[in-house]
């Protein structure tokens, strides 16, 4: 038998077994470490969420005159007037004009709940108007001589059912262009508002990452300025293209 024969191969097998065990332990340790890190990160995110909840964006002040365009079932107007955030609790209902493109009859047919909502809005003192074309606002006698701090159109959509994507996008772009031109003379005159101002986000003492800039909407503190137009859109294509 060669020197170290049986004894040698036993030693080698033992060494190989030990190496395998060591490797297995290392892998297990790495996996446990990864789990621990994940748990710590999750706990941090959770704690952060509790300590500093995201501030809601409230694009109005309690003294704004507001024109709402293209309301569907008037649920946005209802939220603003009947269930306002604390900051807008004293916003006078008479400061708000809520409009729909549909006739009153069409509106209630499409959205049966709108009848009750409109009645509640009117009772509160909101002026509700139907058949208001966003691109021809100067045609409405009720709007004559009035100016607004905010003219708002949530989710403009021509709704022409155009299947061709490019033509559909174009028709919505033209709608928005027409709206902007039509709405401009109805905006309160004044200096251009400072809408966004960057400020440093307060640093979490446990956070090792770099400091981030945060955009703060200072419109509420810097106005009574020139009125502004607010358009909201879904943040996905094709809506982002108009
Ligand atoms: C996607 S819906 C959004 C409805 C509502 N603003 C909302 O956010 O739920 C688009 C609205 O724009 C309206 N609209 C379409 N063309 C318009 C126009 N020329 N002037 C005013 N509103 C228009 C439609 O009647 C519809 O109510």
TrEMBL record:
Domain 25S rRNA (uridine-N(3))-methyltransferase BMT5-like: 67-242
GO molecular function terms noted in the UniProt entry: rRNA (uridine-N3-)-methyltransferase activity
Superkingdom assignment: Eukaryota
Alphabetical keyword list: Methyltransferase, Transferase
Listed InterPro entries: BMT5-like
Region (Disordered): 1-23, 198-221
BP terms from Gene Ontology: rRNA base methylation
GO CC annotation, single: cytoplasm
Acidic residues bias: start-end ranges: 206-219
Record-linked Pfam families: BMT5-like
Protein name: 25S rRNA (Uridine-N(3))-methyltransferase
């Amino acid at each position: 038998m060669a020197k170290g024969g049986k004894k040698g191969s036993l030693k080698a097998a033992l060494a190989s077994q030990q190496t395998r065990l060591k490797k297995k332990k290392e892998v297990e340790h790495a996996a446990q470490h990864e789990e621990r890190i994940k748990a710590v990160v999750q706990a941090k995110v959770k704690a952060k969420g509790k300590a500093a909840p995201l501030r809601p964006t409230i694009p109005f002040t309690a003294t704004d005159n507001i024109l709402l365009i293209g309301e569907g079932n008037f649920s946005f107007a209802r939220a603003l007037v009947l269930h306002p955030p604390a900051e807008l609790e004293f916003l006078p209902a008479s400061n708000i004009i809520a409009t729909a493109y549909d006739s009153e009859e069409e509106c209630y047919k499409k959205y049966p709940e709108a009848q009750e909502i409109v009645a509640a809005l009117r009772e509160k003192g909101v002026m509700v108007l139907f058949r208001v074309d966003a691109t021809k606002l100067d045609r409405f006698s009720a709007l004559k001589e009035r100016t607004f701090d905010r003219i708002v159109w949530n989710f403009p959509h021509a709704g022409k059912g155009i299947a061709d994507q490019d033509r559909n996008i174009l028709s919505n772009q033209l709608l928005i262009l027409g709206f902007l031109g039509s709405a401009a003379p109805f905006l309160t005159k004044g200096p251009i508002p400072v809408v966004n101002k960057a400020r440093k986000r307060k640093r979490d003492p446990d956070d090792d990452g770099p400091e981030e800039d945060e955009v703060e909407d200072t419109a509420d503190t810097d106005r009574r300025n020139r009125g502004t137009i607010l358009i909201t859109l879904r943040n996905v294509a094709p809506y982002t293209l108009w």
